[in-house]
Specification:
20% strand, Rossmann fold, 38% helix, 572 residues, single chain, alpha/beta, Pyruvate-ferredoxin Oxidoreductase, domain 3
Amino acid sequence: MTRSSKNDVAIVVAGQAGQGIQTIESILTKVLKRSGYHVFATKEYMSRIRGGSNSTLIRVGPDRTPANVDRIDILVPLDGAAIDHLAHRLSPDTLILGEREILATDREMVDLSFSAIAGEAGGKIYSNTVAIAALCGLLEGDLKVLEDYLSKHFARKGKAVVAGNVTAAQKGYRAGRELLSSGKIAFPLKKRAETADEILVSGGAAVALGAISGGCRFISAYPMSPGTAVLTYMAHQDSRFGIVVEQAEDEIAAVNMAIGAWYAGGRAMVTTSGGGFALMEEGVSLAGITESPLVVHIGQRPGPATGMATRTEQADLELAAYAGHGEFPRIIYAPGSVEEAFDLTHRAFDAADRYQVPVFVLTDQYFIDSYYCVPHLGAATAQVKDHFVLTPAGYKRYALTEDGISPRGIPGFGEGLVCVDSHEHTEEGHITEGIDLRNRMMEKRMGKMDLIVSDSVPPTLIGPEKYRVLVVCWGSNRHIAAEAVSLLGKDDIAVLHFSQVFPLPPETKDLILAADRTILVENNYTGQFARLLRGHAGIQIQHHIRQYDGRPFCSEALARKILRLARRGGSQ
């Protein structure tokens, strides 16, 4: 079971819901990061509170490896079903570390009785702490960091619980170090001291922090996974940043509350998932004709209907792009990194305010529930600028202007009357059915698209500037596609990642058509971004790699598919 040197170690902890897998993930990632390792963590879990088979992948190493992989270097199964659940990912090199008596498996493994060691520390309740510590010992993590973290984490439960956890950690760490010193197991990894001071943040937290930095002071939602992660994070920050958090009775109420908040001068957001957003469409159209700013976060998951409530997919792109009756402008951002999630969510508030349109931040379960290690987010440079005006006497809310952007007033801020109407309206905001005025109002609203396009976020080219093969992706596939291409080691293959997917940035056509061969990677069945490229830019992508089983791509498998297409062509 000896391991040669490797850039990173992929650890998977697996078991039933309710066995504390998320606690292990939370503590282990933080301790290893503070010990000097870069970490990345992502999870897959079933839609149930107890039972089932869930797992968490944690990648540990000296360099950033923020992408999902199929490989398992160390498996810590907390029950027997976990091994069967992950059998297709196991290899002869996989170290299975656990209690043979509980697992009842004939596979080669290292029998380490977490519960017996925990009993020595005071009881089986400390078994997970033993497992965490054993992994820290195997990877030469810092025991003092682990002890300090456990002391703070369990402080509210009393001195006895803290002492029991610390003792369990010391014994588990010693067991891990003994395995390492035996010479049969080796995971040599370099540490980087500067990594200890980096931040560990989830995709959901990055969206929430971007909203806070963008001036969001009101969030309304009806809980729906995975979008709820943003709601709960902001609820924890409400008193610190003066945020009003409203769990509405349904999604219709949530979106209308947010529109009302913008009307009153507050910056607001709703967070939901595809099924919840379907109920918000009438409200989105209301924002369209009233020219109300609106920010909507959609955490995608597989449909139709309830689909697979805790899995991931990229199948709501067209829903966001075309939702609502009638025609009106909108913007859709799809961040591929936590840095982009922060920056683009911040940007969403400014764009919504500046152009008076709905702006969508489109993520998915994989991105929302994954944790990334980064030096910083953009808080130091983030600024908020309101775009409403002090209304004069005779103010016209929908004044016809050359650039299509009417001055937006706030009730009570100035002498003017701020009148809005969900019907077609005059410049003053009163209902009208006049043909000429209808045409001019439509042209005014849609004319904003020229400004929006000119202010687009360009796609990111990753790899050689002179490429023969171009792998196109959007949203959460950024890091996976980049690592997949990196694994190939080819100097003629690059990745083009889109973080603004609607409207398409002006650079789109030139960048894609510069390639001899194009491959589009996305997590849906029909190729929604491919259709958007064809319909809005006239670009026909040659080859497609699509996945729609509710799981994210793995970089190794994606690399193999890209290589086959780069050589021969065809779709996957």
